[in-house]
């Protein structure tokens, strides 16, 4: 309300429940309204509640509320400072929820939750110190791992589920094997046989539990639960609350995790978890707001014609688009009009995704055209990326897109590029097809079915396509129906209207992952500049390698053409009688195909699909004295390959040191640095002010020596045999000491 007071609705006698996502909802009870003023003390606050609720004995109740946009965690009101914070947090809200929870014994059951309505409420419900949310979460987490055969999307998802499972069942575990392909863990309890093993599924897609012990003998309420609360896990739990309440204290974090999850954390653990959450929430967004706009200008200054755009949004999110001029020029003047859309995880920067648009050169190698850094792969981010891509490209020719079609791409591509064609990525289609195969089939049958699918993809005519689809249908009607449901015009050459020129997939993911360091995280600016350096190196290397190539076709394209030439020697060629221009020919092998060299067409359609003359066309060329190289599409020529890499990506000097960059002290959060290994080295003292302490003997109290080297005997001891000169010195020292 912004007037020093907020409106609260008091509800009594309702019931609270928690859904699977941890969101709490309230239903039932009576409602009463009251005002809460910012200058009230906690005693005045309790007195007003008591009078509003018919002289309720407030000493028997606890007071809690939710932060704005957070219906997961209840915040306590126990003193004046807590009350003032609540009024401050809800100053812009029309109404605020405040719950009055009855104090009961630990054995009592508790149900505490929030209301989904846009009003504030105070509810009177019995509760326990731990709260029903903990009971609800633990009950759900007990079944997060069900047993052998359960599938997870990645090893990380499996490890997260195992962590929740251990918290719910209160046991500790250690990893025996833990990598990207397999995870094995066992219970650390004495003589406990519990063990679990998970690895990649046979299709090499999902992560599956292969072995799991049925018995667990060490489950105990006395387990030291603080060992289960890792720093990363604490950060993931408190991140949303920290976003709403930036001053979330470590002590409050420890108390909340104790009440909600039953985990006992010390101050240091809570502080480290909060530091990680702060870095993930604010560091990337601060960089986007401060450094990325400057970096965009540096890209445009050093590489004229490049496109670099950054857009910051709410909730610490941003989109950063980059397309270097050399890449745009190479795509438009040398590459085939074909773009592969893919999302790449920027490991180890797991909070970022790279949305990429990649073409292929005349050799079939990947040629990155543009990319953007986003927080996740979503329909909205893809739409923004496609709009930036359209702005960057010229409208001289239509483009064929290839993708997996997920996250709304089937709808977004034609929306932004209405005249384009959009097809399936073959690798994605094959992996999706493997998931549909019956587990009861043998490996040999599964491989045969995959081979039939590939032949259906490569079929150039409708008759060929129908032939292979009938063979698939004879094995499984369900598989044939599934293939027809995903529209063959998106993946079969016989029906696809776009031009793929024999390129069905693009392995850009592995290329980019190899470029990014995996041992440490990079800021977004350094991440993009690392990719720029790799692109610059790639373009220089390929430009130098093609200088010695002969004119004509690239080596890979020439090899494919020679394979067709070897097949053409045994074919019979006959000109058609009805052709007056001399362009139509009949070529006979097992069947009769008609070749039209005027329109670069053959009834087998391989010429149209691949862009290189088929064996029927080459047989005609040999009979008519023409050269096959003259009938290949320009994208496979050495000239086009050299045009692809004719431009260079220029360096960006001092990419992380800009003149207008703010100092670290002006940033909203201090820069988090990793502590070095080992004991910190002490700073050496200034030799100009060094004061050396004099050595004093504890035996004779003299200076310049210690007790071990003292030559003065104590009382009752005889003097050692010394030379006369040294003996006189000893006597003199004795006399001086006396």
TrEMBL record:
Keywords assigned by UniProt, alphabetized: Metal-binding, Zinc, Zinc-finger
Domain (SWIM-type) ranges: 593-625
PROSITE patterns tied to this protein: ZF_SWIM
Xref: Pfam families: DBD_Tnp_Mut (PF03108), MULE (PF10551), PB1 (PF00564), SWIM (PF04434)
Cytoplasm among keywords: no
Top-level taxon of origin: Eukaryota
GO MF term set: zinc ion binding
Keyword set includes Glycosyltransferase: no
Protein name as annotated: SWIM-type domain-containing protein
Organism of origin: Aegilops tauschii subsp. strangulata
């Amino acid at each position: 309300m912004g007037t020093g007071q907020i409106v609260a609705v008091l509800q009594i006698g309702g019931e609270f429940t928690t859904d699977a996502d941890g969101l709490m909802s309230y239903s039932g009870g009576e409602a009463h309204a009251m005002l809460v003023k910012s200058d009230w003390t906690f005693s005045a606050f309790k007195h007003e509640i008591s009078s509003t609720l018919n002289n309720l004995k407030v000493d028997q109740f606890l007071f809690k509320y939710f932060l704005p946009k957070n219906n997961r965690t209840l915040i306590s009101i126990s003193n004046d400072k807590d009350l003032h914070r609540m009024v401050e947090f809800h100053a812009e809200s029309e109404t605020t929820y405040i719950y009055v929870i009855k104090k009961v014994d630990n054995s009592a059951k508790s149900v505490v939750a929030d209301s989904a309505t846009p009003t504030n409420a105070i509810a009177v419900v019995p509760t326990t110190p731990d709260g029903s949310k903990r009971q609800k979460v633990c009950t759900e987490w007990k079944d997060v791992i069900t047993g052998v055969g359960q599938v997870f999307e990645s090893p990380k998802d499996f490890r997260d589920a195992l962590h929740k499972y251990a918290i719910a069942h209160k046991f500790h575990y250690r990893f025996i094997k833990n990598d990207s392909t397999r995870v094995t863990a066992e219970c650390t309890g004495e003589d406990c046989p519990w063990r679990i093993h998970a690895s990649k599924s046979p299709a090499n897609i999902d992560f599956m539990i292969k072995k799991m012990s049925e018995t667990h003998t060490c489950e105990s309420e006395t387990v030291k639960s603080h060992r289960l609360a890792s720093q990363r896990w604490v950060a993931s739990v408190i991140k949303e609350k920290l976003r709403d309440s930036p001053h979330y204290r470590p002590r409050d974090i420890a108390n909340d995790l104790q009440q909600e999850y039953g985990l006992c954390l010390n101050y240091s653990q809570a502080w480290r978890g909060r530091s990680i959450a702060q870095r993930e929430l604010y560091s990337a967004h601060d960089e986007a707001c401060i450094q990325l706009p400057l970096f965009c200008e540096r890209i445009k200054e050093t590489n004229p014609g490049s496109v670099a755009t950054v857009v910051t949004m709410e909730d610490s999110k941003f989109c950063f688009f980059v397309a270097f001029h050399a890449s745009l020029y190479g795509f438009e003047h040398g590459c085939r009009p074909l773009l592969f859309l893919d999302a790449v995880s920027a490991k180890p920067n797991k909070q970022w995704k790279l949305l990429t648009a990649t073409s292929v050169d005349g050799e079939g190698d990947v040629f990155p055209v543009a990319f953007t850094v986003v927080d996740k792969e979503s329909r909205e981010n893809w739409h923004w990326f496609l709009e930036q891509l359209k702005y960057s490209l010229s409208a001289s020719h239509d483009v064929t897109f290839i993708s997996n079609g997920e996250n709304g791409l089937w709808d977004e591509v034609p929306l932004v590029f209405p005249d384009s064609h959009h097809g399936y990525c073959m690798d994605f289609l094959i992996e999706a097809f493997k998931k549909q195969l019956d587990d009861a089939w043998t490996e040999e049958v599964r491989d045969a079915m995959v081979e039939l699918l590939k032949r259906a993809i490569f079929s150039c005519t409708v008759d060929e396509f129908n032939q292979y689809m009938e063979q698939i249908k004879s094995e499984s009607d369900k598989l044939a129906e599934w293939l027809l449901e995903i529209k063959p015009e998106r993946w079969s050459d016989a029906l696809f209207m776009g031009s793929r020129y024999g390129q069905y997939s693009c392995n850009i993911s592995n290329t980019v992952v190899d470029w990014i360091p995996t041992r440490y995280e990079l800021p977004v600016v350094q991440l993009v500049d690392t990719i720029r350096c790799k692109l610059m190196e790639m373009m220089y290397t390929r430009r130098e390698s093609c200088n010695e190539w002969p004119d004509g076709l690239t080596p890979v394209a020439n090899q494919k053409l020679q394979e067709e030439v070897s097949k053409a020697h045994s074919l019979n060629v006959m000109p058609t009688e009805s052709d007056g221009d001399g362009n139509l020919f009949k070529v006979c092998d097992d069947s009769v195909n008609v070749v039209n060299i005027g329109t670069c067409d053959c009834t087998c359609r391989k010429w149209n699909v691949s862009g290189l003359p088929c064996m029927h066309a080459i047989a005609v060329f040999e009979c008519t004295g023409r050269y096959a190289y003259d009938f290949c599409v320009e994208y496979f020529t050495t000239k086009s390959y050299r045009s692809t890499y004719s431009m260079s990506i220029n360096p960006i000097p001092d990419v992380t040191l800009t003149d207008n960059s703010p100092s670290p002290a002006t940033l909203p959060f201090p820069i988090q640095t990793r502590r070095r290994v080992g004991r910190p080295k002490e700073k050496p003292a200034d030799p100009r002010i060094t004061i050396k302490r004099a050595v004093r003997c504890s035996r004779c109290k003299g200076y310049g020596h210690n007790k071990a080297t003292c030559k003065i005997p104590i009382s009752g001891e005889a003097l050692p045999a010394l030379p006369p000169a040294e003996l006189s010195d000893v006597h003199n020292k004795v006399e001086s000491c006396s």
